[in-house]
Amino acid sequence: MIPFSVLDLSPINQGSTAAQAFQNTKELAQLAEQRGYHRYWLAEHHNMPGIASAATSLVISHVAAHTQTIRVGSGGIMLPNHSPLVIAEQFGTLESLYPGRIDLGLGRAPGSDQRTARALRRHMGGDTAENFPQDVLELQEYFAEPSGYQSLRAVPGAGLHVPIWLLGSSMFSAQLAAELGLPFAFASHFAPGFMKSAVEIYRARFKPSAALQKPYVMLGLNVFAADTDAEARRLFTSLQQQFINLIRGTPGQLHPPLDSIDGYWQPGEREHVERSLACAVVGDPQTVREGMQAFIDDHAPDELMITAQIFDHAARLHSFDIVSQVRGQLSPKLAI
Prior knowledge:
By secondary structure, the chain is an alpha/beta fold. The chain is built from 11 helices and 9 strands.
């Protein structure tokens, strides 16, 4: 069966704090490790009141320090916000502290609004996501084995071969990952529109590399599992509210669930949210099993990255626990 992994944004619940979000992240990571999840990734976002994982490298270290075996990484680091050397040093440090457990997933979006993006890299002038391919190549060079005297190297970082992933929600990163022979993760959990086309392009154009001999695709999937379909649908309304508030330009902390979302959204908002969250499986264990099996059969991912913005921490742990049990009941992916 394909590996299941976890994507976490360290959500800050309404009325709570970032400190509590990090405690919740630690407990979810420990559960994920106990239940056999393969990776635990944190996502970089900025100027978002409901997301605590802005300093992603630090949160990765927090998770790795409180677990033993699960791989921990970024899903992703938004490379336009940083110099490649700084990221090489940060992840070289993480790999040195937690050898063989660190992943570096890279995205080309800023993970923020344009004003915040300028604040993050205002010293870089016109440097934008257009530089992403060059930045990825530069980052790879910093992780390569040192050869003779080098005037510039990542310390730590050089020679550590931290696995690099490219993340995307369009064709661009799919094409680049194929050209560079890197594993590719698609953000189908919030932007599924180009998923099929991007995966097809990646698999068709993939060139083997020292890092990877054949294409490897990870797909994001929202999974909200509970003891009943009704309770799962109720938990899902927290994520729906989060997307509606983004549409309205009023991002905030993660809201508690509603008994019904119908009175919260307008028709246009509903269409947008349902389109964005089309890759979501919501229900009791049987519904989740059927939904996940259908998703695997339709798209044949090499790995699934499960995410769930659930307000109640105990319900969130329970959801990931159910998913881990369901995994053992699924049939293997179809051959590509």
